[in-house]
Amino acid sequence: MQCENPRRGVWGGPPGGGEPMSQPATNTAFAPRGKVELPNLVAQDIPEIGVKQGVPLPGGAGFANKSQGCGCQGSSDLAGGAVVAGLGMGVMGVIVLRRRRRR
What is the pLDDT of residue 69? Predict the structure, then answer.
């Protein structure tokens, strides 16, 4: 450290006590989605991810044909497997109960 009297573990605001340079995003839960494109928001080109300022991304960045709904929705393949597994567990439970009653 180059500071003459460093104070470790003490965190404060920005140097000089001014306003913070960044603000947290608040009240974003119900903000409209899908109406803003990244190239219109960037101040300069980002070659690492292929974004050029003001140039639309091909195919809408891959979201054109994808559902933008809840992330907790499962596919029908998984749902069918869960039903079969649930039925199998139920049958096994009935078999175990019958065997215990016979004893």
Answer: 54
- Distance of alpha carbon 72 from alpha carbon 77, whole angstroms: 15
Spatial distance between the Cα atoms of 3 and 77, rounded to a whole number of angstroms: 61
pLDDT digits (tens, 9 = 90+) for 3-18: 788 878 777 766 676 7
Query: Residue 15 corresponds to which tokens in the numbers above?
Result: 């140097």
Q: What is the distance between the alpha carbons of residues 48 and 44, in angstroms, rounded to a whole number?
A: 12
